[in-house]
Design goal:
seven-stranded mixed sheet; four-stranded mixed sheet; 13 helices; about 30% helix; globular
Length: about 450
């Protein structure tokens, strides 16, 4: 991405996950070079410098969306937002990096899937990105039972994926991960039950992280029973939204107090005509909803504006925690000297109304339609370049780049490594057994053997 050589963001309140302060930010060659009061007066050269006035505004680290599916081939179709349109929309919403899922077809190798997704993304992305590689398979026997009962509409999608099953699967994954001393990251937490399982596990000391998404924090599953088929179908995703209307507030509370850790969008969009593949059979409706453009505003509205979390926690759950978990920190997720200049100038007093008529996502429906959000991204800066300002883009396909990530982030594995060192099984030192041992021989005869020594392991 070609970057402006120098930027000075003046007078804004810089918000990181641990503190906020009014300070100037100097950006050179795509990275933050200095933070301080009145940097121009302090001797910073004005040559080639563009000045952005952020007085009365917040200056935030660019959002990191931990969960997207751009141009994803799924259920006989392909999600309508490709890596170009989807990442442009992300920038408009204040997100400067996405983590997309490379999902191999059955029988396809993980490396082949990774290479395929890179070939799709690299020429198109407008913001930085990285990839998760998934191993997936599922059964359709729940769905067949609903269809046999004559339930063919979108409500059947939720009915055959009950909340109790989501919670049970979450508990099972946590139990297995803890048994082998492995950290666990649980994507798109959709229900109160599964969130409670995660919260309880964290309070028991288990290394587990939960990721609710914008949809589960901003709306609910009552839409599946809407009389308009297309309205109901556009909310179909897996796991489904839960019909309990208290779910979004419950999840937001857990996100605010640290029981849940990050936020994604699970952005995977299909137009109405694509959703109509399942007009007579809900199991054939392509699963997916929007959110990459709206995640930051929905989180601010439902979290900060409502009084459930402060501005620092907002930065943590929309950017910093993701950067720490996925080994991008402090390059990403923080405004600090040496960090990438992924920055959003945010107006907490401005409002916008979410609508499919005005959003930048390619999909023709928005699950947050009509929501008034306090908190609007005015300027988005990606690696030092102003890419979105006052509703206007200044970005091209391929300007973003793939960001490789090293394994074993300290934020995740520090406790794991300590437990490996201190909880390694060791033999019990004891005196040898000196008695006889009876052996059963062929024909049922028994005889005594020589004394044996045994050792038992314990942790």
């Amino acid at each position: 991405m070609a970057t402006a050589s120098r930027l000075l963001i003046r007078g804004g309140r810089v918000v990181n996950e641990d503190h906020s302060q009014v300070t100037d930010v100097l950006v050179e060659d795509g990275v933050v070079r200095a933070l301080g009061s009145d940097l121009l007066a302090a001797g910073t050269s004005a040559e080639g410098l563009r000045i952005l006035d952020a007085t009365g505004k917040l200056v935030l680290p660019g959002g990191i969306d931990t969960h997207t599916h751009m141009q994803f081939p799924f259920m006989g179709s392909r999600s309508i937002d490709d890596f170009y349109q989807g990442t442009k929309a992300a920038l408009a919403g204040g997100t400067t990096m996405i983590l997309d899922f490379a999902i191999p077809q059955k029988g396809c190798s993980l490396i082949e899937a990774f290479d395929m997704w890179r070939s799709w993304a690299d020429p198109k992305v407008c913001c930085d990105y990285s990839l998760h590689v998934a191993v997936t398979w599922w059964s359709d026997q729940g769905a067949k039972k609903m269809l046999a009962l004559g339930i063919t509409g979108p409500e059947g999608h939720e009915l055959c994926r009950p909340e109790t099953v989501e919670a049970e699967a979450t508990l099972r994954a946590i139990t297995i991960a803890n048994a082998v001393n492995c950290p666990l990251y649980i994507v798109h937490v959709m229900s109160k039950s599964s969130a409670k399982v995660i919260a309880d596990a964290r309070r028991e000391g288990k290394v587990v992280f939960g990721e609710p998404i914008a949809a589960s924090l901003g709306t609910d599953g009552t839409h599946y029973w809407n009389k308009e088929w297309h309205h109901a179908a556009h909310h179909v995703m897996g796991p489904p939204l839960r019909p309990d209307p208290s779910t979004p507030g419950f999840l937001m509370n857990l996100l605010a107090n640290g029981d849940l850790t990050t936020t994604g969008s699970d952005h995977c969009t299909f137009n109405t005509c694509q959703k109509a593949l399942g007009r007579d059979d809900f199991s054939k409706i392509p699963n997916g909803i929007n959110g990459v453009e709206d995640r930051m505003s929905v989180l601010w509205e439902k979290g900060v504006h409502s009084g459930k979390m402060d501005e620092n926690r907002f930065v943590a759950v929309t950017s910093t925690n993701a950067a720490k978990i996925f080994n991008l920190y402090p390059r990403k997720g923080r405004i600090a000297v040496g960090s990438d200049a992924d920055i959003v100038i945010w107006d907490p007093k401005a409002t916008r109304t979410i609508s499919a008529k005005t959003h930048h996502q390619a999909v023709n429906f928005n699950i947050f339609e009509g929501m008034v959000c306090h908190g609007v991204p005015l300027v988005t800066i990606s690696r030092g370049k102003v890419v979105y300002e006052a509703g206007v883009f200044n970005v091209n396909a391929g300007d973003g780049k793939y960001i490789p990530r090293k394994p074993f982030a300290e934020y995740v594995y520090k406790r794991i490594k300590q437990r490996d060192q201190t909880c390694t099984p060791s033999p019990v030192e004891r005196l040898p057994y000196k008695g006889e041992v009876v052996l059963l021989k062929a024909g049922g005869k028994t005889e005594a053997s020589a004394p044996a020594t045994r050792k038992l392991a314990h942790c």
